[in-house]
Automatic annotation (TrEMBL):
It is found in: Cell membrane. This is histidine kinase. It is a multi-pass membrane protein. Keywords: ATP-binding, Cell membrane, Kinase, Membrane, Nucleotide-binding, Transferase, Transmembrane, Transmembrane helix, Two-component regulatory system. It comes from Paenibacillus taihuensis. Residues 477-595 form the Histidine kinase domain.
Length: 605
């Protein structure tokens, strides 16, 4: 059918492609974009500035290392030994070893340092390698000659046989210092600090300057400092090298004309050495490539704007409007408002047998099915969590009740009527509280009242063997928390503390911290093994706390509390367990504050 979505889009796209292509053919012959070239020039200039800053920082750091080496006592002692011809040979060997150890530590602590070597005028060389060289051939090397005759402190890339064997095949650039005895100011040789040339070359190679442009690092004579070649067609800067050297500014740009072609030359002088960063590129490359892209995009954008307006007006009634409504319904579904999305589809979407109508019907069926599945899964999940919570609540070990009844019998037999009355009254209050199963939440003051009744029973049972204190900020009394948090933890604390010491020392504290409540319980028990603590953390992270339903053994009261809190508070529950052998355990529960009425529906319902 001619008016199908596919055909209408096909016609529209043909129009949108042919006209822009024709427009590009017409405008490409007239394009000129100097701004793009300037942008490339500025970008390259900034990159060169960054590289110059990097090299300046590196050279300054190397100079700091050289000063540190020269001024160190180990170096000065070695220099003094070289100046003393009567020094025993074994003493010199010891000084060499100490110097190697010191230089190795310096190189190890400065990752940009490849190696450090000290040369004396008699041909002795000591560095970070495992041997002492006695070879005066270094005095014939180019870097030594340049330093002595021209005072060139920074060398070009070269190989250094005095480096460790693993680095002897690597090119290095070096900083040279006179090896001076600071007490007598006598110069006995040269201090040489090496930096791998590759560490300086890699950042330089990342600088892009047009298609064929090149960037070099040159010395004061215009020769490459690194292992770079200077092709004749990209060496136009050599004709203006004296002017670059004479320029007192730190950088600039010059136009040169090698081979009758205009080249742009950018340069930056480095502060810590006599090196210069030079970039050269044919000027035509800066105003040729990107120019077309910008002009074309402007022309195409204008044409496409007009065409889009016309096509959108034609398509809006049959395609754009229905699609817009469909998108609105999808946004409602994305926000979870499935009922609103389903209602909008039923009320506002077209029923025509077109592609849009088909997509609408499929989306409506999908939303309906998805809503049904989500509601089914939600209710099933709520029932499951409610069952888990109830099972955990019923699992709290009631043996304290049996112990209390036995204590009442024992007190009666002893004729301690007042204690029998006190225990019976406290037990009655606890049972009245525990039989309230209509809510999962209770006010903090009620939970504390419950635990105080429990503690009063424990005090009668254990007498002076129990030292327990409960503290809570009074303004937190109306906060709502999950019930039965304290009793299992206090029971565990008393039980294990009495197993470990003659007196159980238990502390219970509740305080507010921002939007959270912090519940802390500490004891002087034998402590918890780190394996058990890590296991509890892992179970909480993996959502396996409900496995406590089938568990048994020690610390089940703690797992029960954590499992119930995790079911209720979810990821908002934070737990910290600090324990060490024979020094007791401190458990901290961090739960969100929820001040207000306690007759709140369970979170799992």
């Amino acid at each position: 059918m001619f008016y199908s979505l596919r055909q209408r889009l096909l016609i529209t796209f043909i129009v949108l492609l042919i006209i822009p292509f024709t427009a590009m053919v017409l405008v490409l012959t007239q394009m000129s974009n100097k701004e793009i070239g300037n942008s490339i020039e500025e970008s390259t200039s900034q990159t060169m500035d960054q590289y110059a800053s990097f090299v300046n920082t590196l050279t300054n750091q190397v100079e700091d290392v050289a000063n540190q080496v020269l001024s160190n006592d180990v170096t000065q002692q070695w220099i003094g030994g070289q100046m003393n011809p009567s020094l025993p040979e074994n003493r010199k060997v010891l000084l060499d070893a100490e110097l190697r150890k010191f230089l190795s530590s310096i190189a190890l602590n400065h990752s940009y340092i490849s190696s450090i070597t000290l040369f004396d005028s008699n041909g002795v060389a000591v560095g970070i390698s495992d041997q002492t060289f006695r070879d005066a051939s270094y005095m014939k090397s180019e870097w030594y000659t340049a330093f002595k005759q021209e005072e060139r402190r920074w060398t070009s890339a070269h190989l250094d046989k005095y480096q460790p064997s693993s680095l002897q095949h690597e090119q290095v650039n070096s900083l040279l210092f006179n090896l001076v005895h600071l007490s007598s100011f006598q110069n006995i040789g040269i201090l040489k600090v090496n930096v791998l040339s590759e560490d300086i070359l890699k950042p330089l190679q990342k600088i892009k300057f047009g298609e064929t442009g090149r960037v070099y690092l040159l010395d004061a004579k215009g020769m490459p400092v690194l292992n770079q070649t200077l092709p004749p067609e990209m060496s136009g800067f050599s004709s203006v090298w004296p002017a670059i050297q004479a320029d007192k500014h730190s950088g600039g740009k010059i136009i040169v004309t090698p081979y009758k072609k205009r080249h742009l030359v950018l340069y930056r002088k480095l502060l810590g050495s006599d090196w210069v960063v030079i970039g050269e590129v044919p000027e035509s490359e800066l105003f040729q490539k990107m120019t077309r892209v910008q002009q074309t995009m402007l022309a195409v954008a204008g044409g496409l704007l007009l065409l889009t307006i016309a096509a959108a007006y034609w398509l809006s009634k049959s395609i754009a409007n229905p699609l817009s409504l469909l998108v609105q319904s999808m946004k409602l579904a994305e926000r979870g408002e499935l009922a609103a999305a389903e209602r909008q589809i039923v009320e506002r979407m077209p029923r025509k047998r077109t592609e849009v109508g088909y997509a609408t019907r499929v989306f409506h069926a999908m939303v309906t099915r998805l809503r049904f599945l989500i509601e089914t899964e939600f209710h099933a999940n709520m029932r499951r969590k409610d069952a888990e919570y109830k099972a955990l609540l019923m699992q709290i070990n009631p043996h304290f009740l049996y112990n209390t009844l036995e204590a009442i019998g024992s007190l009666s037999a002893q004729g301690r009527t007042d204690d029998v009355v006190d225990v019976t009254e406290s037990l009655g209050q606890m049972l009245r509280f525990s039989l309230r199963t209509d809510n999962d939440l209770v006010q903090l003051k009620e939970e504390l009242r419950y635990i105080r009744h429990y503690v009063s029973i424990l005090r009668i049972r254990f007498g002076n063997r129990l030292d327990i204190a409960i503290s809570a900020e009074t303004e937190l009394g109306n906060e709502s928390i999950v019930k039965f948090i304290f009793q299992p933890l206090v029971e565990n604390a008393v039980k294990f503390s009495l197993e470990n010491a003659s007196t159980a020392l238990v502390r219970v504290g509740v305080r507010g911290e921002g939007k959270d409540l912090l519940i802390q319980i500490s004891d002087n028990g034998p402590g918890m093994p780190q394996e058990m603590i890590q296991e509890i953390y892992a179970q909480m992270t993996q959502g396996e706390m409900s496995d406590v339903l089938g568990a048994s053994g020690r610390r089940i009261g703690l797992r029960n509390v954590l499992a119930r809190c995790h079911l209720y508070y979810g990821e908002r529950l934070k737990v910290s367990i600090r324990s060490s052998p024979e020094h007791g355990t401190e458990i901290t529960l961090q739960i969100p504050r929820s001040e207000g009425e306690v007759n709140v529906q369970r979170i799992v319902r």
